[in-house]
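Researcher: Here's the sequence for the chain we discussed earlier.
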Amino acid sequence: MHQTFVELLERNAEHAEEFQSRFGGVQDSQHPAVVTVCCSDSRVLQDEMWGNDEPGRVFTCSNIGNRVVQRTEAGEAVSGDVLYPVEHTGTDTVVVVGHTGCGAVTATYDALTDDLSEPPGIDHCLGLLKPRLESGVEALPDDVDRAEAINRLVEYNVDRQVEFLVESDDIPDATVVVGVVYDFQDVYGERRGEVHVVNVDDEREVDALREAHPEIDDRIARLWTY
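Model: Thanks. This is the structure I predict for it:
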């Protein structure tokens, strides 16, 4: 057996030893307080970023590009893995988690600007991002370098995912939808791994967000106002 997997099993044994007494209240049902939609990236520590060690507290979804949209025969819809906890477990908060240096955003940017292609499975995923990022690519200032362009588009993508949820009839009006960016590149500051709030219920203006949410005003920041 590959040594990497052996090491994973060893760590799982430690996990099971620590958590064996923590599943009593959630063995038959779950009522998570929040559903998070993260990017599938090995650098994004999806539960660790919240310090979460409580089974049943966070319903964690992930895919490349932290997308909330899927295609159905009836057209685009809120992705089932995001909608499930809202529809069936009483979850009333959705957090869309982008991250600096996102590979999916980078690949979408390259596809839009250089017509680069990917294998079909990846291309399908990028196809869900392209319509939402195309206007962002067009709006980028001419003087931004590639890395800055990508990180601006990371915010733009989070905004578009939040917007889709807010406008969807499938998401109850009382649901709070938050957009954040997880930073490990010192883009927003010097605390690697810190989450920065860029959008709440489709409000993107920093001053308005800080006025509305003073308890987190020091965690609200944006790279790009467009």
